[in-house]
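Could you join me in thinking about how sequence relates to backbone shape in a protein? To get us started, please write out a protein record for me. Would you write everything just below, so we can both look at the same thing?
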Amino acid sequence: MHFVNAKGILSAKNGMNIYRGCTHCCIYCDSRSVCYGFTHDFEDIEVKQNAPELLENALRSKRKKCMIGTGAMCDPYMHCEEKLRLTRKCLEIIDRHGFGVSIQTKSTRILRDLDLLKSINEQSKCVVQMTLTTYDEDLCRILEPNVSTTKERFEALEVFRENGIPTIVWMSPILPYINDTSENIEGILDYCIRAKVKGIICFGMGVTLREGDREYFYMALDRYFPELKEKYIHRYGNAYELPSDNSRELMKLFHDICKANGIMYDINECFHYLQEFPEPYEQLTFF
């Protein structure tokens, strides 16, 4: 872990990354890809120590309230957040200024900040996004070794449901020959139904691999799934998109279950919901 003073904190679309890098060590992590320009080891977390000050200044200067997003690139609830509490400090600023937040994580550490998330949701809007890829707990510990298991994340989703905070699930990636089964998809969707999630984001049944990400993924395949790397290379070569051979039937299963249970699954609709800031309530005046 090392500390830097960043020049800015919000992207053009109001996204925020307090940390760069990750200690979750998910075997498929796209953020490891060379194209993102990491100049340090991925597990050597870069901490933007002045993130709260930058966010305070950025929100003060905004003329219109909006949703602030975080977690798309690096998880805001990694192990270092337990001590540093920078995510919490930023949530306090968002809450104080009346902005909304859309926060994505794989960690139940987010429950520590339930009080702030409830406060934000009561005055504007808060959406919690959780990634669920693997119903089997033993397999989950292999694919996503340093993070809360899928069952633990489901239990967190239930807490948010009980507290009136809407949730979106990312069901991605689904790894060919590993978790691309109907049993896995049905298990994840059962969790989503029970937690009454608002929507599910799924980019298809498969995974994407780029330089940097691909090498780390293949090392994991050699360690946990002997001979599977050769099957990947033979089937996909160096392709960026690696669709599952079961993609068609699994996507039909996904769509059918979502439709039957009133779960939003259109990707554009899900992203619109995440970015949409509620219009302020205006009391009617009668003359």
Remarks:
- The chain has eleven helices and eleven strands.
- The first strand starts at residue 2 and ends at 4.
- Confidence is low (pLDDT under 50) at residues 281-287.
